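thoughts on these C-alpha cells:
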Amino acid sequence: MLTDRVRTSCRSVIERASFVRIDEVSLRRLAREFPRERFVVPPVPAEFDEHRAMRVLAADAINFGSGYHDVVRKLPGLSGARTMHTHLNRYVDATGPLTDQRLMALTPTDCSQIFGQELDGGALEELITRFAMAFNDLGRFVYERGGTAGSVLETIGTSAVGLAESLTAMPFYVDRENYFGYPVSFYKRAQITAAELHRRHLWHFDDLDQLTGFADNLVPHVLRIEGGLIVDDDLVARIGRGDQLAPGSPEEVELRAAAVVGVEELVTRINDPRVWAMHVDEWLWERGGERRYKALRRPRSRSVFY
C-alpha cells in the first residue's frame, strides 16, 4: 500500500540519516500541546458538488513551488502559496467552472495571466510552465476517467489511499526519490488531495487514518524550531542563507523523511485513536504561519512535489 511505503521508507532514511535526527524529549513536550478539541470533532456529512470538487483537484494539482516563492510576485499580506490559490479562485470566479477540456487547453501564457507572474525566461517561467503542465495532466486524467470530478471519485469509492494511488498516474504526483540507492516515497500532494476533499465536506473516505504526514518544507521547519528535529549546523546555516537545496539531495530527502517520521511519533505520543497524521500535520502547518516561524528561513528546493 502506498502509505505503508511512505512510512517504511521514511523511517529507514532517518535510521541512517547524516543531517537530521529526531529529539524524543521535545516531541513528547510538543505532543502535550496538541489541541485535541480543534481536531477531534463530530464528522460532517459529505455533500458532493462537482464544481467545488474540480476546484480542489485543480488547486492541489498546482500545490507546489515553495522553492520559487522567493521570486514570485505575492499579493499584499499573503504567502506564495496563498497568493497562487487566491489567483486561481479569482480566475474561476470570473470565468466559470473548471472542466477537463479547459484544463487541457491552458498554456503557460494563460497561466502567466491567471497567476500574475511574468514569463521571464528564468525561474518564474519555469514555475508557470510547470503549472500549465500540471493542469494539462489533470485535464487528461479526469477526461480518461469519465470527464468529471465525480466520475474520478466514484471510480475509487471511499478509499483515500485509493485516490492517492490513482493520482500517481500523473508524473507530478510520482513523489519518490532515491537515497543512496534506496527508494523513498513521500506522495505529499497525492495524499493531501483526499484530506482537502474531506475537510471541505465534499467526499466521504473510510481510511483517512491511514494517510501519513504530508512531507513538504514547512513541517520540518516547524519541528526544527520546536526542537523536535536536530539538524546539522552546516545545513542550518545553508538554509539560513537562503541556499536552494537540490531536489533529491540527501539533505532534502532527510528533511522530508524527518517530517513524516516526526508526525508519526507525535501521533504515537498523543495516543488518541481519533487523532491521525493528517490532523497533526495540519496543526504543524498552521503553526508555521506564525511570526516566530516565519522570522527564520525555511528549506527551499525547486520541486514539483511541494
In short: Residues 123-144 form the longest helix (22 residues). The chain has a mean pLDDT of 96.
